Amino acid sequence: MTRKHRRLILIGSSLGVLAFAVALVLSSLRDSIVFFNSPTDIAEHKAAPGKRVRLGGMVKMGSLERGDNLQLRFEVTDGNKDILVSYRGIVPDLFREGQGVVAEGHVEPGGTFAADTVLAKHDENYMPREVVETLKKQGHWQETAAPVKQSAR
Amino acid sequence: MIAELGHYALVLALALALIQSWSPVVGARKGDVALMKLADSTALAQFGFVALAFAALTYCYVTSDFSVANVFENSHTRMPLIYKFTSVWGNHEGSMLLWVLILAFFGALVALFGTNLPATLKANVLAVQSWIAAAFYLFILFTSNPFRRLAEVPVEGRDLNPILQDFGLAVHPPMLYLGYVGFSIAFSFAVAALIEGRIDAAWARWVRPWTLLAWMCLTVGIAMGSYWAYYELGWGGWWFWDPVENASLMPWLAGTALLHSAVVMEKRSSLKVWTILLAILTFSLSLIGTFLVRSGVLTSVHTFSNDPARGLFILVILMVFIGGSLALFAWRAPLLKQGGLFAPISRESALVFNNLFLATACATVFVGTLYPLVLEMATGDKISVGAPFFNLTFGPLFVPLLIAVPFGPLLAWKRGDLYGVAQRLLAACAVAMIGLAVIFAFNGAQSVLAPFGIGLALFVMAGALTDIAERIDLRSMSIETIGRRAAGMPRSSWGTAIAHFALGITLMGIVSASTWGSERIVALKPSQTVSISGYDLVFDGMVSRDGSNYRETAAHFTVRKQGAVIGIMEPSKRVFPSRDGMSTTEAALLTRGVSQIYLSLGDNNADGSIAVRLYHKPLVLLIWLGALVMAFGGALSLSDRRLRIGAPKPAARIVAQPAE
């Protein structure tokens, strides 16, 4: 086997693996990315019903209702639009009314957001960046978020 | 006073780093021994001053000096003493101080123990090391000064984030940083080699122990972080493919590839350019990891409060170092003498195979982690890339790699005999097939992939045992021969076999815990029972008690198996008045062999019941046990005679033990 052959085998197999990886990445990126939506986005029907999305905003004050069997209903707001979220299970420690929240799930045909995951965070002052931007876009960042930040201390 | 002393020490360390950044380079160019030697002293003194700064901050924490803003924000007088120590790095400023402390520590180690290095190489390595150090001292002094004083001294501190008030904080960040920062040595060696334009097999021999040490620490650090998140976050997961987790996985993958390519370089004087590139990439990925975690550009479940201005500073550091080193690589790498090519079937090729797949897997993780950022900049769409993406890309790339693991060590250098190796692996293959068949018989059609996963794990483990069995000539059946060969077998070979075996252990834990685990979420009233996988848990009632700086409400559960009491579990909720009533969930774990029952509390309901989340996690401990065994394999390899004895002249202690 000549040097040329060896080099060809090396380069060929490297390219093969890379091509395989690129194919994998492209095919799975198409199926497994999740878009981030604000309540306004959802009200404007940006997300198709049944498609997996992340919803971010603030848990509206006074909207949290606990039902039987660990059922939970609350409204997520960006100051402009509200959306009703239903969730069954245990919410993270830092889940509270008036706090930022990111929930993952899909929009039901009736317009309710069925969440299967409510994301946890580690710090009471931390606000997911997307939520901050959502609030800023709606011009409610100063009014809603800042007082919460102070009261958390 | 102490805080100012610490601040001043940090400024002095910066001054020393600035001296060290040019004098050895000039010395190396001019052949001025005195200038080169200067780096040894400055590296040691730098470490001394950073240690002093770190000690000063620790002192402020232990004495609860709330006039220091950092202490005020992250400590409390009633916090247990151990957390007063660990909260030093339980916040941004302090953790960056720990980062530079470890960086200076490694610099000092090179200065102390690198006595057998060529003088110019050592001088350049120390110079590069101090460039990194200087950048991070500036970062700390300008954007994250941990010694900032408050004008009015508060009476009480705000307490450490309750999630961090855990033993995990004592182990996870230091180990992770030892790993991240440890790779800076490989980086400095690579850049120094590029500056000199000369590289040989001895270079790999010097770099390997440092890489191995960093890799071991990173392995343990990641495993500890995973276990910590598993029991602290209360949802029983041990890996979420979260950006922050990926940030630590990428340097690990690249570092693992570097370990293997350095072997080829050392033994066969080949793959030089690639090894240099890997060394640069590994540390670059560590820097990117620091950036991702510290800047908060990506939303992560593990993110704490952060400040975008700091992110920008780190981004600049990142671009200078990654861009600079890659540009240097592009410019100087063609000067390096290429090694020979080798036969497609050989140990070298097996290691290239390993590198190819590890690097590709690392690249897919990189794409998945940073794609949301790129897409948002390009289109404004906000997306997240979740676990399915990583499972679909990372999985298929790791399977061929794992299949190849047993083949590698059995193949001969230069020209291997694949058919012969396959024959020698027949026994391992048989073990895997039996395992696969047994699992398939019991499991039925529940999960198709799981039996194959277990089979693969068994193959990797049996393959590692085959390697050992052949090396100690188990077939001779003579205890004398086996004992002699086992004693004579190099420790690095033991290390390889053990680390590869551990890979199988971890895989088995992953497959088992994710396939056969069960989960129940129920609301319980006192004296009600919940059952999972043959265990019955009776909820006896709630207990309240006071902790040092929190109030705890625990649920008392008695666990029975077939009527016999096997344990008590007390998951609890802790409320921290000092943090405005922030609460944490403390999960209860009951370990049975290497399996665990996991119980965590939810909210109280109006009807007096309490929500609980219950998991049975079969063989879950194997995941982290495997990582520990892997690190042990690394330690064995590190203690190998070959690495302790340098090439040009014997140096008894080129490999320093970690200080802790």
Structure description:
The complex is a heterodimer of chains A (153) and B (660). In chain A, 36% of the residues lie in helices and 28% in strands. In chain A, strand 3 (65-66) and strand 4 form a beta hairpin. Chain A has helices at residues 3-32, 39-43, 129-137, 141-151; strands at residues 33-37, 52-59, 65-66, 71-77, 82-88, 100-107, 113-118. Mean pLDDT of chain A is 78; it is low at 143-153. Chain A has two domains: 1-32; 35-151, OB fold (Dihydrolipoamide Acetyltransferase, E2P), CATH 2.40.50.140. Chain A is α+β, with helices and mostly antiparallel strands. Chain B has four domains: 1-162, Four Helix Bundle (Hemerythrin (Met), subunit A), CATH 1.20.120; 166-404, no CATH class; 410-516 and 625-660, no CATH class; 518-617. Chain B is built from 21 helices and eleven strands. Chains A and B meet through helix 1, strand 1 and helix 3 of A and helix 12, strand 1, helix 13, strand 2 and strand 8 of B.
So how many helices of chain A?
Answer: 4
Secondary-structure content class of chain B:
alpha+beta
CATH architecture assignment of the largest domain in chain A: Beta Barrel
CATH fold call of the largest domain in chain A: OB fold (Dihydrolipoamide Acetyltransferase, E2P)
> Could you give a short account of the major beta sheet of chain B?
6 strands, antiparallel
Given as residue ranges, the uncertain stretches of chain A (5+ residues, pLDDT < 50) are 143-153
Number of distinct beta strands of chain B: 11
Number of domains of chain A: 2
Q: Please work out how many helical segments of chain B DSSP would assign.
A: 21
Radius of gyration of chain B, rounded?
Answer: 26 Å
The beta-strand count of chain A equals 7
Largest interface: A-B, 51 and 61 residues
Percent helix range of chain B? 55-70%
How large is the share of residues in beta strands of chain A? 25-35%
Give the strand order of the largest sheet of chain A, numbering strands 1, 2, ... along the chain: 2-4-5-7-6
Distance between the termini of chain B: 29 Å
CATH class call of the largest domain in chain A: Mainly Beta
The rounded distance between the terminal residues' Cα atoms of chain A is: 72 Å
Residue fraction in strands of chain B: 5-15%
Average residue-wise pLDDT of chain B: 89
Specify Rg of chain A, calculated over alpha carbons: 22 Å
